[in-house]
Amino acid sequence: MWSDSETERDCLGYSSYVSVLTDVCLHKDLAPLTLGVFGSWGSGKTSLMRILKRSIEEITRPETGPAKTQTLWFNAWKYEGREEAQSALVHAVLAKLESELSLSEEAKRLIEQLKESASVLKLGKALMKSALTLTPQINDFVAAFQEESDKVAKTMQSFEENFEDLLERVAVERIVVFIDDLDRCSSAKVIETFETIKLFLNTPACTFVIGADAAKIQDAVGEVYKVADDQRKKDYLEKIVQIPFTIPEQGLKDIACYVGMLILGRRLQGEGWKEFYPSWSR
Asked: Rounded CA gap, 41 and 145, in Å?
């Protein structure tokens, strides 16, 4: 028996897909971009994304100095029930930049401002939820809602400006964020993650790659926004995901070949695997 784990070994012949998707992720005229890697459970979404991430890193790795293209893996399900997806994703992106790059004092200041912005957005959302449950006087409610809305709007604008400024100062030309297991999250967490992605989508250097079952994402849209019409659910997803890629369904011959590759993979390690499958050495 084999465990249900992703792999970076291309046992399913994903190399042609990865080649095209790598070009899409790095194309200078397509960013900011959200790429959807869609497929049902067990279709190989995570493995394809892992191979794609490695392909991007190999192509953009500089001979010396920090990489101008940064990649980040974010497992959305890891934060289910623990904290706001918005705060977690923002802090994960900033932590990646902090760990990989040498930061000037101005860059450090911008990162702290961005962290504060994430806290403001999180607090604003919590306060508005509280206002709804406490059923205050209507005038007080309107005033509180307006105040928080203005604060959130200003914070979102400053976040976009500060994040773009930060990437310019640290000489990062592209940051590619892989979001996995989104369809395993609650509907509220799915929508919250999409709302967070929109924070970054005015910054040309940002690319998001989302692995999910498209049908489950559309179900989340229907549940959170109380939408029954399937076309409206699909329209919402298309507004967030500019380029959808659906993993082709595997036939019996493909599955038989895959199992054979797994058996060989147990016998061939390291250089032996590369010798057997030459494209890995490129």
From this structure: 41
Helix (H) or strand (E) holding 277: none
CA distance 153 to 114: 14
Q: Structure pTM?
A: 0.79
Q: How confident is the model at residue 137 (pLDDT cuts 50, 70, 90)?
A: very low
Q: Comparing C-alpha atoms, which of 6, 12, 57, 20 is closest to residue 277?
A: 12
Q: Please state, in angstroms and rounded to a whole number, the distance separating the CA atoms of residues 222 and 203.
A: 28
Domain spans of the chain? 1-98+172-249, 102-171
Contacts of 215 (CB under 8 A, 6+ apart): none
pLDDT in tens, 156-195: 888 989 999 999 999 999 999 999 999 999 998 898 899 8
DSSP state of 126: H
Q: Does domain 1-98+172-249 have CATH number 1.10.10.10?
A: no
Please report, for residues 32, 97, 241, the alpha-carbon distance to residue 101 in angstroms, rounded to integers and kept in the order given: 22, 6, 29
Owner of token pair 């490129």:
282
DSSP 182: G
Q: Is 83 helix (H, G, I), strand (E, B) or coil?
A: coil
Say which residues have a Cβ less than 8 Å from residue 281's Cβ, sequence separation at least 6. 274
